[in-house]
Amino acid sequence: MKDFSIMNQICKKQQTVFFGSTNLSMMDLSEMLRESTSAHIYNRSIEGLKLKDVDSVLSTCAVELQPSKLFINLGEEDLNSPDFDRKSFIFKYEWLLYQLHTRCKNCTLYITSVMSDSHEAALVNKDLEALATETGCTYVRISRNSPWDFINCVKHFVRNSSITFGDAMQYAG
Q1: Ramachandran angles phi, psi of 98, nearest 5°
Q2: CA proximity to 125, closest of 105, 146, 144, 139
């Protein structure tokens, strides 16, 4: 976390930020999305992060950067917890969204689906999709549990220019 605080001092504000757990923490998102946008991309994901621990890192990982776009990918670690409770998880997620809406001005929030093939993840993802609609966020469904599928699903939302015909065919196909 200390490294993020130091890096945030030299980062540009109003850029694109990814905030998540283990899967995202292992991706070099700025490299993978370089051709999708001219905006800076910052990955503020933490390996092993659970939703119950987000309050302690939220300022450093998101609020300090005042992003224009914030992609949230949380839940994979929570699902693996033996005491996982879906209703409690969604309640905590809603509280997170409230904090982000009030503390990150002019920010578009994107909720990405939990990257897991489990039955419980499918139920959580349905709840997250409904929550996104209720809270004015955009839900991004990740089709399969792989880094490249994640990138292909989010790059449409990351871009800051018009979509080309070739891009449209890729999204349609």
Answers
A1: -60, -45
A2: 139
Q: What is the DSSP letter of 48?
A: T
Residue 118 has pLDDT above 70, yes or no: yes
Picking from 1, 39, 2, 38, the residue whose alpha carbon sits closest to that of residue 19 is 1
Helix axes 119-135, 86-103, angle to 10 degrees: 30
- Cα–chain center distance at 100: 12
Instruction: Tell me the C-alpha distance between 73 and 128, whole Å.
Output: 11
Instruction: Confirm whether pTM is higher than 0.85.
Output: yes
What pLDDT score was predicted for residue 37?
Answer: 81
* pLDDT for position 165: 60
d(CA 52, CA 50): 5
